[in-house]
Amino acid sequence: MPVPTKIEAPSGAPPASQPSQKSMTKAERRELQERQRAAKLAQKSVAASSNAGKEAAPSKPKAASAPSQKKSGDASGSGAAKSSLAKDASNNASAAVDDGAAKSVSRGLRIFSHFGLPKPVGHSIKGDIHPAIIRLGLLFSEFRICGANARCIATLTAFKTACPPSIFHSFDYATPSHNTLSRHLMTHLSPQITHLVAARPMSVTMGNAIRQLKLEISGSDIDMIEQDAKDALCHKIDNYIRDRIIIADEVIQELAGKKINEGDVILTYARSSVVEKILLNAHEEGKRFSVIVVDSRPLLEGKALLKTLTNTDPPIPCTYALLPALPSLMTEVTTVLLGAHSLSANGSVYSRAGTALVAMIAKGHSVPVMVCCETYKFSEGVMLDGFGKNELAPPRFSNPIKHSQPLAPTPNLEILNPLYDLTPPSCITAVVTEVGLIPPSSISSIPLALGRTNL
Amino acid sequence: MDIERESTDLVKREFLAVLLAGFGNELLPLTSDHGDEPCPKSLLPVANKPMIDYTLTWLEQAGIKVHRPAIYHHIHSGASLSLSSLRIDLQTFDESQDTSVGTCTLLRHFSSRITEDFVLVPCDFIPSPSLPLSILLNKFRADAISDGSIATTCWFADHKPEKGAFPEEWGPHPQPSPIVWDEASGTLLHIDTPDDQDRNGEEIELRMALLSRYPRTKLSTSFQDSHVYVCRRSVLDALHEKRHFDSFREEFLPWLLKVQYQRTRRTKYARYLNPITNTTSQRLALKHSTMSKETSASNDSFGTLLSKDPSISVPPSPTDGDDDHGTSNSFRVGVIIHRASAGFAVRVNTIPNFLEINRRLLSQVTYSLPTEPKDRSLIDQKAQISSDTIIGGSTQVSERTMIKKSIIGRHCVIGKMAKIVGCVLLDHCVIEDGAKLEGCILGKNTKVGAKAELSRCVTQAGYEVSAGETVKGEKLDVSDWTAAPDDDDDDDDNASEDEDDGSD
After folding, report:
1. CA-CA distance, A195 to A213, in Å (whole number)?
2. Min CA distance, A373 vs chain B (Å)?
3. pLDDT tens per residue across all 504 residues of chain B
4. Domains of chain A and any CATH numbers
5. CA-CA distances (angstroms) from residue A44 to A40, A87, A172, B249?
């Protein structure tokens, strides 16, 4: 059977025009040599410990994928082979030139692995997702829109534009039956919501808002014509944002502002949109107080708050400190103002990681802790700790030096950055909502007091 | 005017791809006419696939499925596009080969057909696999909403060929312009155009406003422009204002960059660059966001010291008017820098680049005998074909021929004892017995006579090299035949064209 013969390196080639070609291929030949050497090394190490080598190969690709509970169980199970694996892993890592750098040698998280690692932004978008939702997903995953209020407003705004006009047109020729309309709208919105959740896990505020939106859709009038129905829906979305976030924030500003007196030292943690509004409003009203902004990595949101507070006229005197400095500063503080991601039915506050420490230390120093939270942030569930439900920050926020390459995963170091934690109700003095100042444990009685079935 | 049925798309199209397919004047004589037929640059095969194929695949991967790229030069039906998911709308723009029109003029001409944000793509940019278009699109999407950015560009590491790798006649390597960019936010700040260099060849002039806004910048001359621009629709409005600009890359883009930081230009052109339909304005959400980059919006630091902005302390309302204080509308131009370590990307607009990309693609391929029995019968058993070659279908290779590191097109006929090393042969070439080719690029239908020796030549389509000729480092044009045959020396430097009797 004829076989085309393979030509090896050119030999005895005419010298006249060859030198440049040779120099180019010299670099390539060097590369080839390196690769062959690395491959030989890999083969040797694999041959030496064949069993462990076989385990290393499948566990490596498994480790590269998103870690799961089961896998971490496997990793801990094969602990005996780990020591020999480590040596082979380092050999394999150096020899794995062809594997590409993506095949990390990490073993996955031991704890909090059930939250799932933040997924990288996919390059292919499945299905018909509206461009506004695509962009919003990007903003979420890059943490440009961060914070419970911001995310909820962004989601509702995007749904206003993603609400397709053409589905109303498609019902032009048929009498619109409101059931079909609402169901169609639901089925259209579901993949968009899924796309947003894939970018970042849904916040409680987003969930409440979407639930309310679905309620509105299913409750819309049958006899209305399409354009009116769509306008009505957009109006309802606007009203929701206005009533339950913007105006609620204004009421909270007033209520909390009454608690800020002249000469106070107010401590706040990270950056909450509500607390920022309260402080700016109190300053506008003419009160003179000072602020201590406590911040922590990885997000370092307090820096932005600091900039906003010092940009006022005359500027608010501020102190900026990281979390470990907190006990030293707590002696001078008169009030602590905190924001919240959500409030659970038993009164515990789910907020940025570090809030619980602030509340606890404040309580230890008998400093009143006020959590500022709108009513739409309440969630029906009972939360007892911050481990059941949490979120991990993507590893790129954990650079030791800003803007450097993200830390490459190594076999001995995993980066863990939970974003939220739970403050028990005992550490909180009062919760400031738009319906008044209430003790944290009486949250669940508010709907009853207002005569509503739910919040 | 075709009347299309508007499909009931629930989702509006997000991007329109505008594909520029020009003549390719830098790639002469490869792109010269073959007889009467033009050989446009976009159909030039790279690794036996037409160049435009790569671009269209790249666009498809990014999810620009249902789009109509506006190709404004009539493409031959030679491009068998099996990409049926693309609805292609060909737009011809009359231009002759001599008067090549700049991109700005073309965009102005077609601006009525472009109604949404668009992606301007050249047909000759071949990206590495690690640079999908979605990276650019995602950066544009995120920046446009959060920052009011108007465009995103991509610059890739320039690949300088080694000295002496390519002969002088093939044209000098295009010098990349120096650019200034901000690494942290990925903003392109300044391009030093050739006009700037003519004016002041020794210094690069930068505005203080630029530096006060972006204090930590980088300057480099080792990046080439990929000519891929993702732009907002409002950029076209600004283009209409500047009637005298012709070239997008050399004139309009550097001008656009200045709008970012020069206050007078901002106020003058803000109303053009502001988007007309503010469909997805997330301003309210960004005001509430805890990690917004708004702090850089107050980057007019001198400005805020002097003029207090009372609107900042007013709580925002959900029905926002068009106040562009504080947030957004920075009119930034983003940039993605693609470094050499991340992969090899190139713009195939010069002959050395053409050869280089072919060489790179060869390294990823292994040759195997064709499976079709008819094709296989054409390739002789005693032919020596190395594994890093690509041979097109229906090519006949005779015995004792040596082919190494080459790309041979379709329907070629290669005679006995020929030696082809490091060449690119387009379709329908005929190489007679005993010919020696090295580092050459032969256009379509080239005939190389027996025992001819070609080294580093580029031939036009349809050229005929007579038997026994020795040519080194020449660009062979068909028009050379018609030139008066005055010098008859078969010197190495002069390809004699007096052999009108052509081949054999």
Report:
1. 18
2. 14
3. 333 333 334 456 778 887 777 666 667 667 666 666 666 677 778 887 778 778 888 887 887 753 334 333 334 333 333 333 344 454 545 444 444 567 777 778 777 877 888 888 888 888 888 888 888 888 888 888 877 788 888 888 888 777 777 777 777 777 888 888 888 888 888 888 888 788 887 888 888 888 888 888 999 888 888 888 888 888 888 888 888 877 777 788 888 888 888 888 878 877 777 754 444 577 788 888 888 665 444 444 433 333 344 434 333 334 333 333 334 567 888 888 888 887 788 888 788 888 888 888 887 777 766 666 676 677 777 778 887 788 877 888 888 888 888 888 888 888 888 888 888 888 888 888 888 888 888 888 888 888 888 888 888 878 888 888 888 877 777 776 655 444 433 333 333 333 333 443
4. 131-247 (1.20.120), 259-450 (3.40.50.10470)
5. 6, 13, 72, 54
Cα separations in angstroms, B305 against B111, B267, B298, B299, B301: 41, 19, 10, 11, 6
Please indicate if any CB of chain B lies within 8 Å of the CB of A270. yes
Which CATH entry fits the domain spanning B366-481: 2.160.10.10, 3.30.230.10, 3.30.830.10, 3.40.1190.10? 2.160.10.10
User: Rounded to a whole number, what is the distance in angstroms from the first to the last CA of chain B?
Assistant: 52
Residue B84 contacts A where some CB pair is shorter than 8 Å = no
Count the alpha carbons within 13 Å of A430 in the hemisphere toward its beta carbon: 17
B282 CB neighbours in chain A (<8 A) are 136, 139, 145, 153-154, 157-158
Cα–Cα distance measured from residue A333 to residue A335, given in angstroms and rounded to the nearest whole number: 6
Q: Which residues contact A356 (CB under 8 A, 6 or more apart)?
A: A386, A421, A422, A423, A424, A427
Question: Which tokens go with B361?
Answer: 């693609």
Residues of A in contact with B379 (CB under 8 A): 4
Q: What is the C-alpha separation between B67 and B503, in angstroms, rounded?
A: 47
Q: Are the beta carbons of A4 and B9 separated by less than 8 Å?
A: no
Inter-chain residue contact A166 with B284, CB threshold 8 Å: no
- Beta-carbon contacts of A79 under 8 Å, excluding residues fewer than 6 positions away, are none
Q: Which residues contact B84 (CB under 8 A, 6 or more apart)?
A: none
- CA gap B342, B156 in Å, rounded: 10
pTM over 0.90: no
Cβ atoms of B41 and B22 closer than 8 Å: yes
- Token pair, residue B189, equals 């700040």
Q: Write down the number of H helices and E strands in chain B.
A: 13, 31
Q: Which residues of A touch B61 (CB under 8 A)?
A: 123-124
CB-closest option in A132, A272, A273 to B280: A132
- CATH 2.160.10.10 domain residues, chain B: 366-481
Nearest in space to A409 (alpha carbons), one of A398, A401, A418? A398
Q: Give residues with Cβ within 8 angstroms of B261, minimum separation 6.
A: B189, B207, B209, B210, B213, B214
Sign of CA dihedral A273, A274, A280, A281: positive
To test the contact with chain B by mutation, choose from A26, A125, A138 the residue with the greatest count of B C-beta atoms within 10 A, namely A138
A209 close to B (CB below 8 A): no
The answer to whether B280 contacts chain A (CB < 8 Å) is yes
Within 313-332 of B, beta carbons closer than 8 Å to A belong to 313, 315-319
CB contact under 8 A, B8 and A170: yes
Beta strands in A100-206 (DSSP E): none
Q: How far apart are CA A132 and CA A249, in angstroms?
A: 27
Residue entry with tokens 């073959």: B34
Half-sphere exposure in the Cβ direction for A260 (13 Å, CA): 28
Where would I find the beta strands (DSSP E) of B339-459? 346-347, 384-385, 390-391, 396-397, 402-404, 407-408, 413-414, 419-421, 424-425, 430-431, 436-438, 441-442, 447-448, 453-455, 458-459
